[in-house]
Structures are given as structure tokens and as C-alpha cells.
Fold:
Amino acid sequence: MKKLINHVDDVLAESLDGFAAAHGDIVSLGEERLFVRRRTTQPGKVALISGGGSGHEPLHAGFVGRGMLDAACPGHVFTSPTPNQMLAAAEAVETGAGVLFIVKNYSGDMMNFQLAADMLDRDHATVIVNDDVAVENSTYTTGRRGVAGTLIVEKIVGAAAERGDNLAALKTLGETVNKATASMGVALTSCTVPAAGQPTFQLGEDEMEMGVGIHGEPGRRRVKLTGADDIAAELTGAILKDLSPRRGQEVILLVNGFGGTPVLELYVMVHAVRKLLADAGVNVMRYLTGAYVTSLDMAGCSVTVTAVDGNTLTLWDAPVHTAALRWGM
Amino acid sequence: MKKLINHVDDVLAESLDGFAAAHGDIVSLGEERLFVRRRTTQPGKVALISGGGSGHEPLHAGFVGRGMLDAACPGHVFTSPTPNQMLAAAEAVETGAGVLFIVKNYSGDMMNFQLAADMLDRDHATVIVNDDVAVENSTYTTGRRGVAGTLIVEKIVGAAAERGDNLAALKTLGETVNKATASMGVALTSCTVPAAGQPTFQLGEDEMEMGVGIHGEPGRRRVKLTGADDIAAELTGAILKDLSPRRGQEVILLVNGFGGTPVLELYVMVHAVRKLLADAGVNVMRYLTGAYVTSLDMAGCSVTVTAVDGNTLTLWDAPVHTAALRWGM
Structure:
């Protein structure tokens, strides 16, 4: 295992300390590093809280800040944060309008966020993200997994919270955006969890895992490596089958690197996917390209498409100021 | 070789097409993809043009836009662009105030930018970036290599061009920022050039290349893999030896991923480097962390420190709107 780390047990703490120092104008760390919070909260705004296992950076801490999340709870690598973390985060950033939890659909996260919600003595609601169309049920889930589409839900709901939407409206909006979002990924290599010290799974030199999960979970099938156009066709085909967009549908396209994928290749995928979407009569209004929801050092990418309307597109375009997404301010 | 590509010969063209589509609000492609240019130029502003081999994305095309470059010329992977490209770019974006070429110190780039400058019938000047303190002379250079510090030169000079500084002033500023900038990198794995189909160099499972270049050129020495703190100490030590900052010196710190490095690890490095800088009495005013000057899929990182004053820090903070760096608008 080759990693820029000191001791395996200290990776998360040191990384969080570096993150908090580098982005001290936006975030601060909660006590005992239980959560990353927005430096300043806004009274009367619904507090948005997400979280999950680490190893997917910049998700979620990189999306804490004005126009997006109020706090993120980082678990150990690929491990759910504890209810204690979510409760501490909620009590720190809730300002009277309630808490919306945004949770990726993994059994550990679902259970722990539920426990935290049960203990929380404030108004709260939960949006579950399950955008991955690769498989029903999986290693760590009942039902579909939540993957890169999570950031789109967090951005759009974050903007609505910022403009003053109430808790019920935000929950409805989050569920609407989740339903309008579909993703699927492919791995060319495995990731390596620091504490494990070896690759999570084995892939032959000429193989790829089609439909891989963001923890290296199995996807639909293991197949021979093909070209970018063929890969794009399978990912985009599955997404379009799920979303069934009408001709002329406006969408956001996210081509997401898993951590070990060169930017040069991500734009090759953008080129391939946009041709397919154009052929399907789908109109890409906004692009986002980069490593946003990663699997440590895994090579590969995912494609996410979100169908938008005037309201959700305006919310996507609204100003945001986080470590990983920033525009309009 | 596992890459998200179609045919090796089409990688650059397809990636540029994807890039131009994704960032059509900021850039457009020149004819025959000779250059990436800012969609709108500003009459009377000095035109800033950079470029170099591809494989370092988002450098340089990702830094084209308001507040930074006017055009970037992409060569094939790790290969200089041609004088023809630079000349075409200059003629497309020059608006009467002259052209400043920003060139990384590699023999091929130096020769081709010089040939273009000789042919150009407009006022022009050149700033050479050679921030890599790892080695004097190298595989492709006479003198020090230009690496990640290039983006800091491009950002600061870009902001000064935007406020209306003239060609001579921008050349002086660029040279000043270059002198105030020092970088050094480490590789944990090799990169793989698509056309080569195999890793550029071989590293043992317990080895790293200390002082590596951004094309996988040899650095100072090949050593046993150590922890992040030890790596940070060697990189930061070499940088501080070169810059000799006074106590209280204000700096920008860039921790740059080479393309295959998880964000989690980059922030571990931020944490390690900032402690060392604090111990040296150096005051980090701004942080930038991410994969900005890459070597395809190489795992590893570089550290860059730029000493700033009130003027250069203000220029760093000035609004910028490019594909890869965006703030203030």
C-alpha cells in the first residue's frame, strides 16, 4: 500500500485538521472532530446536515458552506458516522427552523441517522438519496445505493434552504431531485482502504467492474475493458432507461472521477456522454466535471444525470461557497 | 494500460471537445483545436498566453478565463505545442496591448514559444517559470523545471492584466512571483502515457521518487516510502532553503495532487506542511489544495510555497472565472 499518510489510525484526524486549516474562512471543526460545520450559521434557516464514511472526499465536508450544507459528519473510511456525531452536529447548527438530514442509502448510515433523529429534540426530516441505477440491493444496502447524485441533491436543497424554504418544502424538494437523478459508475482499478492495506477487490489487467459502488462493491458484471464510447453507452443507457426523459428534457450532467482518474480522461467521457444525450434529445444545461464523490484512489468514473426544471436549475445556479464547489461569490 | 479513452490518437481531440462543451460559457476552441481561448476578450488588456504538453490538466486550459489566461495551447501528451499554435492563439486574442507568454522551463516549450515570439508582429514579452527546486537541469530542461507554481504566476499576473497593468509591468511582476515561488514533488507511482501504453518508470512497492518531475522525470533520489510527515519535511525543507523566508513572511501554500492521489491524503499533507511552515515562522495566508498540475494518473503530490506581499496577495484574491479556479464571481 502506497499512501501519503502517517499512521493508519491518524489518517482521518490529520486530514480533517488539514481541511479545517485550509478552509478556515468557511468551516470549523466540532469538538473531538465529531463534525465539520459552517463557520457562521444563519438564524431561521433550516439546517442541512449530511455525512457518511470518509474516503469519498470532497463529499461531504467539502460541501459545507454558504448555499449548501451546514454540517457534515465524517465516519472512518467507508464506515458510517455514529448517531452521537449527527446529534452533536444538529445541536450545534440548528437555529430554530429545524434540521434536514440528507442520507445516502446505506444500511449503516440509515440506521445511525435514524437513531440520531429519534434522539433529536428539534423539528427534523430526512431525505434519502438512492441515485445509483446499477443494482437493486447491494453489499451494504437494501434498495439502491446513494452515490454522486448526492451532491446535486445537497446543492439544490442547500440553495432552497438559503432562500428560506421551510423544512417540509425542503424535504419534498430533496425527494423530487433524488427521483430526477440517476447515476452509474465503472471501476478500472480497485481502491485500497488504509486500514486494510490491500486492494478491496481484484481486477484483471483487461477487466473493469461495470456498475461498481463507491466502496468498491460489486456492480452489474465484470467485463473486458472497452473504449470510452462503449463505456459511456452502457452507463448512459442505464441512466436514460431509469429516467425516461422526454425529448427536450433539460438536465445537469455530472461526470465524476473516483479519485485515481486523470482529468484528461474525464473530459473524454464528457464528450462521449454528451453525444449520447444529444442523440436521446436530452438538453444538457449545466456540466460538472471532476473528482467530487470519490472512492479513495479508485480509477474509473461515474455519470450522473439530473432532470431539471426552471426552479431546480435556478437553485443549481444560485451562489455557493464551499471548499469544493464555489460560484457566484 | 487501463484508461477511459477510445483510440490513443484521439484522446486529446476528444478531451478538448468535452472540455469546450462543458465550459462553453468561459472558453471556445480555436480552429483545428490549435488553442483554447477565452470566449470574450477585453480590448486594451494585455493578452496572457500559456501552454505546454497535455497530461497536466487542468493546467493550462483550465485556467483560461476572466482574471487569468486569454489562451492556452495544448500539445500532445507531454509534448510541446508548436509555434504555429502559439502564433494562432496570439493573433486570435491580442487586442492592441501586446502579448505576454508564460512558459514553463522545458527545452521544447522554450524553443517553440521563442520561435512563435520571433514570428509575432505584435508587442510581446515572455515570463519563464522555473519553480521546481528538486534538481538543476533535468531530462527535458536546462536549469530548473517549471511545475505547479506556474498556476500561481498565471493567477497573479492574470489579475494584474485584468486591472490594466501594461506589458512591461506584467513581465516584471511575473518574474517577481516566479522568484518568490518554490516547489518540489514526490511520486508514489509512475504515470502511464497513453501512446506508450506502459508506465514511464518503475518503482518498487516500497519506493518513492523524491523530487520527481511532472512528466515522471527522475528527481533527487529514489528512497524507501516513508510517512507523510517525513515526506513533508523533505519537500518543505528544500523549499524553505531555496526561498529563505524571513520570520513572519506571508505565503500562499499549494498542495497539489498529481492525478492519482486521494483528496483525503492531500489534506494529510496540508496538515503536515503547515506545522513545518509554522515552525519556520512562516505565515500561511491562503491555501489551495487539489489536483491542479497533474501528471496523468501519477500518485503523489507536490508542495508549492509563494512568498507574497500586500500587492500580490490582493491579486491572488481578485475575482477569477475559469474551469478550474473560480472565486469572486
Q: What stands out?
A: The domain at 181-327 of chain A is CATH 3.30.1180.20 (Hypothetical Protein Tm841; Chain: A;domain 3). Helices of chain A lie at 11-22, 83-93, 107-119, 149-162, 167-179, 228-243, 263-279, 310-317.
